[in-house]
């Protein structure tokens, strides 16, 4: 075997290994991107937005204020 042939084999093997490693990394990045997109969809589906939360909380607070007024009126009427 000549030194040139040996050098070509070594370079071919090294380039093949580098190509295989890069291919695996690219596939892993694609897989992670798919998982990230799925996670984003699930988070958007499972959690409420800040505006929706404030709207719901304001409704609850207004109901509690109404109940507080009614209890105050009942206490006044019972005190007389």
Give the helix tally: 2
Could you describe the largest sheet, including whether it forms a barrel?
Answer: none
Order of helices and strands: HH
Q: Uncertain spans, ≥5 residues at pLDDT below 50?
A: none
Structural class: mainly alpha
Molecular shape: rod-shaped
The domain tally reads 2
Percentage of β-strand residues: under 5%
User: What is the number of beta strands?
Assistant: 0
Give the mean pLDDT.
Answer: 92
- Helix content, binned percent: over 70%
Radius of gyration: 34 Å
Q: What distance separates the N and C termini?
A: 115 Å
Give a summary of the structure in a few sentences.
This protein is mostly helical and 80 residues long. The protein folds into 2 domains: 1-47; 49-80.
Explain what this protein looks like in three dimensions:
- By secondary structure, the protein is mostly helical.
- The protein has two domains: 1-47; 49-80.
- Helix content is 92%, strand content 0%.
- It is built from two helices and no strands.
- The protein is rod-shaped and about 115 Å long.
Write the layout of secondary structure elements.
Elements (H helix, E strand, L loop, with lengths): L2 H44 L3 H30 L1
Keywords:
single chain, 80 residues, 2 helices
